[in-house]
Amino acid sequence: MCKPLEVLDHSTHGYLAYCPDCGGFTLAFGTTLAVMLEDDIRRMGEHVSTQLKAHRNAVCPNAKAFMFKPGTNSTCQMVLTYTEMEHLETMLNRGMLLYEAQSLLHDATG
Ligand SMILES: [Zn+2]
């Protein structure tokens, strides 16, 4: 039985949380809720950042122009606007920064 999730970041758009027992990440964003592994979270973060850089000022900010799977084995798709992609990037960056800081502290204290 898993312990309660550690919330890494939350906003009006959703939250990113981590399970210290099984190592799973829960991403709630808009109407999507996905449980993902660390590799998938990092891959998604890179994809979102790359897409934002590639399409800056090139798409209508409110058009649902971005579609991708939240994880490699996922059967659902995220369908987001540029603005939503920016909110997701912020959540992933802040959440993973806190996760990395907590991992360092856990390593240091054993
Ligand atoms: Zn768990």
Give structural notes.
This protein has helices at residues 38-54, 82-109, and strands at residues 6-11, 14-18, 25-29, 32-36, 66-68, 78-80. The chain has two helices and six strands. Strand 3 and strand 4 (32-36) form a beta hairpin. It has a four-stranded antiparallel beta sheet. The protein has one domain. Bound molecules: zinc ion. Zinc ion (ZN) binds at residues 2, 19, 21-22, 24.
Largest sheet: 4 strands, antiparallel
Spans of at least 5 consecutive residues whose pLDDT stays below 50 are: none
Kindly, what is the distance between the CA atoms of the first and last residues, rounded to a whole number of angstroms?
22 Å
Work out the number of β strands.
Answer: 6
Kindly estimate the percentage of residues that lie in beta strands according to DSSP.
Answer: 15-25%
Radius of gyration: 15 Å
Question: In terms of structural class, how would the helical and strand content be classed?
Answer: alpha+beta
The succession of helices and strands, N to C, reads EEEEHEEH
Strand order within the widest beta sheet: 1-2-3-4
Query: Which ligands accompany this protein?
Result: zinc ion
Average pLDDT rating: 93
Tell me, what's the shape?
A: globular
Number of helices: 2
Please, how many domains? 1
| Helix content bin | 40-55%
Short descriptors:
110 residues; alpha+beta; 2 helices; 6 strands; globular; binds zinc ion
Short description:
With 110 residues, the protein is of the alpha+beta class.
List the helices and strands and how they pair.
Elements: E1 6-11, E2 14-18, E3 25-29, E4 32-36, H1 38-54, E5 66-68, E6 78-80, H2 82-109
Antiparallel strand pairs: 1-2, 2-3, 3-4, 5-6
Helix pairs in contact: 1-2
Bound molecules: zinc ion.
